[in-house]
Write a structure and sequence with these properties.
Length: 248
């Protein structure tokens, strides 16, 4: 049916106008209440973080992206303090270094859709916790320094598409596990334990005595030229008289 054939009689028009006038304010009120509930939940979650000794801050004044950090909190931080963290929007950095969280807390963390940088160093996170990070598609940085993660745990994060840096120093990851991960992800930078070779101090070498430089031969004096003998005039031989007499 085309629009030019679709006509409403006056009674139908009246019904539609009445319904619109009655329900439109109600719909606006519901939408407004929904927005207020969302803001209220976010404010409550931010308040919970701050009361736990953490902080929520914007990355920059021109960006709504946020960093949530519990690093150096004066209070013990566990899974309970992360229960409502999903209510805070635009979290891209999360620092949980040195906290008492368990593997179960990573269920909440994995639901942060924009998370890019995650600090888990010096926590009790293990292989089971890393299972929950498979959905962290935006994660580029992961710090597992001093955790309980082993080579088996690396398999759970191997498929993270944007992961660029991974720190596993002082964890239970072996060199073989790092080599296997880098073989499948050659562009991924994995920082393991640094093995420094001991430096053996060698005794200082005595300076070798300088050899005396050979004396340069003295230049030879030119020999004096001998005087050339003086040329004398050739004397004529006397004629042999006997020979002349014989000719006669």
């Amino acid at each position: 049916m085309t629009m030019d054939r679709f006509h409403l009689n006056p009674s139908c028009k009246l019904v539609l106008l009445t319904a619109t006038a009655l329900y439109l304010p109600l719909l606006c009120f519901v939408a407004q209440c929904g927005g207020q509930d969302k803001n209220s939940a976010e404010n409550q979650a931010i308040k919970q973080v701050e009361e736990s000794g953490g902080r929520v801050s914007k990355i920059s004044a021109a960006d709504d992206s946020r960093e949530v950090s519990f690093y150096l909190s004066s209070k013990p931080i566990g899974d309970a303090q992360l229960a409502n963290i999903n209510s805070i929007s635009n979290i891209i950095w999360l620092n949980l270094a040195g906290t008492e969280i368990t593997d179960a807390a990573l269920k909440q963390i994995a639901r942060l859709p924009q998370l890019r940088k995650l600090h888990l160093e010096r926590t009790n996170i293990g292989d089971d916790g890393l299972k929950h990070l498979k959905g962290a598609s935006q994660l580029t940085y992961l710090n597992l320094y001093g955790t309980q993660v082993t080579d088996a745990g690396l398999e759970h994060i191997q498929s993270l598409p944007k992961l660029e840096k991974l720190y596993v120093w002082k964890s239970k990851v072996t060199e073989a596990g790092i080599a296997a991960l880098q073989k499948s992800r050659p562009q991924l930078m994995v920082v393991g334990e640094l093995k420094l070779k001991p430096i053996v101090a060698e005794p200082p070498k005595k300076p070798e005595p300088k050899k005396p430089e050979p004396k340069k031969p003295e230049p030879k004096k030119p020999e004096p030229k001998k005087p050339e003998p003086k040329k004398t005039k050739a004397t004529k031989k006397p004629k042999n008289k006997d020979a002349d007499s014989k000719k006669e």
